[in-house]
């Protein structure tokens, strides 16, 4: 970032239709989710990102910083509503799953901004556990 700070953008592709311009649900987090399997993650929900950012590396226009991809995973399941997000990711050989809920709202009564993701059983959202 221009001010010397840094963060990770955790981006989840929720709309796989080819014409979906802003298909990445995005959170600004201070830790790498791939290094937090089985641990809680807190993050700020930010504007949806364009799909190009899944592959992009380099300077961001307007002097807003630089993008470096540090991890990649495969989305196994994603269920979203206004007040909850259930996400399962395949990271390497492991499947990690978190359930997120809002911790606070945006200024002037806006939508949920700060979210906390708690680790849960790694069965993908919407699938039976096969017990």
Task: Kindly describe this structure.
The protein has a 7-stranded antiparallel β-sheet, with no helix packed on it. A two-stranded antiparallel ribbon has the order 4-5. The chain has no helices and 9 strands. Strand 8 and strand 9 form a beta hairpin. With 131 residues, it is mainly beta.
Q: Structural class of the helix and strand makeup? A: mainly beta
Mean pLDDT: 81
Secondary-structure element string: EEEEEEEEE
Give the termini distance in whole angstroms.
47 Å
Counting copies of identical and different chains, the oligomeric state is single chain
Structural features:
131 residues, 0% helix, two-stranded antiparallel ribbon, seven-stranded antiparallel sheet
Summarize the SSE layout with pairings.
Layout (H helix, E strand, L loop, with lengths): L7 E6 L10 E6 L11 E9 L8 E2 L6 E2 L6 E8 L2 E8 L2 E12 L6 E8 L12
Brief account:
This protein has strands at residues 8-13, 24-29, 41-49, 58-59, 66-67, 74-81, 84-91, 94-105, 112-119. It is an all-beta fold. The strands form 2 sheets. The protein has a 7-stranded antiparallel beta sheet with strand order 1-2-3-9-8-7-6, with no helix packed on it.
